[in-house]
Design a protein that fits this description.
Blueprint lengths: L1 H9 L3 H14 L4 H13 L3 H14 L4 H13 L3 H13 L5 H14 L12 H11 L3 H4 L1 H8 L9 H10 L7 H14 L2 H6 L30 H12 L2 H9 L5 H20 L10 H14 L7 H16 L7 H11 L1 H10 L7 H21 L4 E2 L5 H12 L17 H8 L14 E5 L5 H9 L4 E6 L2 H14 L4 E6 L11 E7 L8 H10 L1 E11 L9 H9 L6 H12 L18 H8 L9 H10 L2 E6 L4 H10 L9 H10 L8 E7 L5
Parallel strand pairs: 1-4, 2-3, 2-5, 3-4, 5-6
Antiparallel strand pairs: 6-8, 7-8
Length: 689
């Protein structure tokens, strides 16, 4: 009869399957398989309360039934009850009865739990679990790809098999992750392939570049003395690099925010300029061009932040004058134009206007789109974005001017694909402290206060596709970028508006979720801004706030003081020169950001060190702001699982990490734990229990 129950269930005849299962249990009242089948049917018919009862009765009746543990674990994980679900799946794994889908839920669950507790010693690595599941059932890869990529981007110590390299390349472009989140793993894999060493072996990395040790398992080739290096070696290297698909994809996708990579790419750029100046047909070998254009795309992303010597500046001017005098570009014209783009986007635009390319290669077309057509489209879109009131506050005007000049991030793709979860599981993923609560929170309206160029805005719109997601920002140029990216991604559930957060007071609007990260501390009165946001929250609302930590940013004070005392303007040349000064150890207390790309693009470095206005906070002030605004603290979002692991080790009686007193003690000991800001969730007190 059990086989017939399974058959009826597979065919969707749930009523008949339930009748048969109850008959079976009437004859076998403590049968674990009968309870398990009723649990499966209840889960399939959207009756989670009954499913929970039947699954638990199944494993109680027979604790050795691995399939029952597997079904219970998958069911609990689907509800967002990750810890309980993982425990059940681990039991199924020990019993040798876990199904391919169970491996996927276990891998995802372990990855989520690593944010709070070190589970790595209790099971095999999540990426290996995914690989095993996919090998058992290849069709699972498509359905569970976003969850797998979420694990993949954290797999720094995994061995890079060919399939993993192919997956990394795909993930950089398909919307399953932010490419910037994948860059640490990508850079490590490329370094292990010997790419950095092969570039450094050409030399030309010593002038103005402080070269760190490169961690590679390969012996490093000896670098020749600085100066002229044979063109043949450069041609050979470029041909080789142009055949590395992962490298080309990475260069075009996100800033490669790693110090040894910056040193290598800076040196390669110099060698390419030398080569361009040496001969009119320097890039006649078309096999060299793909990596040159990819490097130009990288420089577009980081706004040519690489240190530039006076000789290089003169060389770029010489190259531009030479090309401008030509009636037509030589056969190597794409390579020569790309070399100009390595240094000066404006020079590239001018040369392209006077020397249009009739049939550009796909890579060159991408560069043209990036530097010419996309900015033009953004300007047109920005002109049509509605405005709410006038921006009158002096500090707001100053901040607006900065972001009109330096909108960021200049992202290419972001996460638009998310794991298949219901609203309750999504809530548990975003706010672990709400895990297991009744799914009463709604997702009808979301406000992104300070949406910038739209990356968080578009991610949120995809995460909550039925919600109306409103984005406001001071910078019209940033909003134009956001609008273009939303159109490209086909996102229709967003609204954009140029507005000062101060102008939202008294608007009468209310939102289920408000996100405001990295914005309030750039206001003249940050806590006033928070109080305005509080008035926009619905009684059931959640708010996500990001504020600078005074302790975490103390290492920046000597640099910021130096900037003010020397009257440094936030120009591209000044930013490049200051970065070079920092790299020469002029500020020994400075800790180069290792978890973000703040230091690796001009706009982000300006935001980090040259900002028009910023305030910092401590946890006493955070606690007071939460209390004064009638909010319930729901936990921090942390950069790096190691901080969560350290916290739970030091405060085992606070497993959900909700005590601000404990966090105050923790931060005093680990002063960089909030290097990425205090980013936390809170709930309107009206709903808190």
């Amino acid at each position: 009869m059990l086989d017939r129950i399974r058959s009826e269930t597979r065919q969707g005849n749930y009523r008949e399957a339930i009748i048969l299962a109850k008959h079976w249990l009437a004859r076998h009242p403590n049968d674990d398989d009968g309870f398990m089948m009723l649990g499966i049917i209840a889960a399939l018919t959207q009756d989670p309360a009954a499913a929970r009862v039947f699954f638990h009765r199944s494993v109680t009746a027979n604790p050795e039934n691995g399939k029952a543990w597997d079904n219970l674990g998958r069911f609990l994980c689907s509800l967002g009850e990750i810890k309980s679900g993982v425990a059940a799946l681990l039991r199924a794994h020990v019993l040798g009865a876990i199904e391919p889908e169970g491996f996927l839920f276990l891998a995802r669950g372990l990855h989520l739990l690593r944010r709070r507790i070190d589970m790595t010693r209790r099971a095999v690595r999540a990426v290996d679990l995914y690989a095993r599941a996919f090998s058992l059932n290849s069709r699972l890869k498509k359905a569970h790809w976003p969850s797998y990529v979420d694990v993949l981007k954290s797999s720094l110590d995994a061995v890079a098999a060919p399939w993993m390299i192919a997956d990394l390349r795909r993930a950089c472009v398909d919307g399953s992750a932010r490419p910037s989140d994948l860059m640490p793993v990508v850079c490590k894999n490329l370094t292990e392939q010997g790419v950095v060493d092969s570039i450094i072996s050409l030399g030309r990395v010593g002038e103005g570049v402080i070269l760190p040790s490169v961690r590679s398992s390969r012996p490093r080739p000896q670098s020749p003395p600085l100066g002229k290096v044979g063109d043949g070696r450069l041609v050979e290297l470029c041909r080789s690099l142009s055949g590395n698909a992962l490298l080309l994809t990475a260069l075009a996708s996100a800033p490669m925010a790693e110090r040894s990579w910056e040193a290598a790419l800076t040196g390669l750029r110099r060698r390419l300029l030398d080569h361009a100046l040496a001969s009119a047909d320097a890039f006649a070998d078309a096999a060299m061009t793909p990596v040159i254009i990819a490097l130009a795309l990288q420089c577009a992303l980081n706004e040519s932040i690489f240190f530039e010597t006076e000789a290089e500046a003169n060389g770029v001017d010489r190259l531009a004058r030479h090309l401008a005098r030509l009636d037509t570009l030589p056969a190597s014209g794409e390579g020569l134009l790309a070399v100009a783009a390595l240094y000066r986007a404006d020079t590239f635009r001018q040369l392209l206007a006077s020397h249009p390319i009739a049939a550009p290669s796909p890579a060159m077309q991408m560069l043209i789109d990036r530097l010419v057509r996309e900015p033009e489209a953004e300007a047109a879109l920005a002109a049509a974005i509605p405005r709410l009131g006038q921006i009158d506050d002096a500090v707001s005007k100053s901040v607006r001017r900065q972001y009109e000049e330096s909108p960021y991030p200049r992202w290419i793709t972001t996460q638009t694909l998310w794991p298949n979860t219901d609203s309750r599981a999504t809530l548990g993923m975003l706010v672990p402290a709400l895990e297991g609560r009744p799914p009463t929170l709604r997702y009808e309206s979301v406000l992104i206060a300070g949406c910038g160029t739209g990356r968080q805005l578009i991610e949120t719109a995809c995460l909550f596709p039925k919600a109306r997601v409103v984005g406001i920002d001071l910078s019209l140029k940033s909003l134009g970028y956001a609008k273009r990216k939303a159109i490209e991604a086909g996102i229709a559930n967003i609204e954009l508006m140029q507005a000062d957060l101060l102008d939202l007071k008294g608007s009468g609007k209310r939102f289920d979720i408000i996100m405001c990260s990295g914005v309030l501390h750039h206001m003249a009165a940050p806590l006033k801004g928070l109080s305005i946001l509080r008035t926009l929250m619905k009684p059931s609302g959640l708010i996500y706030i990001g504020l600078y930590s005074r302790i975490a940013r103390e290492h920046l004070l000597p640099i910021q003081t130096y900037i003010k005392q020397n009257g440094l303007a936030s120009t591209p040349d000044a930013i490049r020169s200051l970065r070079h000064l920092i790299r020469s150890q002029a500020f020994p207390d400075f800790i180069e950001p290792g978890e973000h790309s703040d230091f690796y693009t001009l706009s982000e470095c300006r935001d980090l060190l040259f900002h028009a206005h910023e305030d910092t906070f401590d946890l006493d002030e955070i606690a007071a702001a939460i209390r004064d605004n009638r909010l319930r603290f729901l936990g921090f979002t942390l950069y790096g699982t190691h901080w969560a692991q350290k916290f739970t080790q030091e405060f085992p009686n606070d497993p959900m990490m909700l005590s601000l007193d404990n966090w105050r003690r923790f931060e005093s000991k680990h002063r960089r734990c909030f290097a990425g800001m205090y980013q936390f969730w809170a709930m309107a007190e009206e709903r808190a229990r």
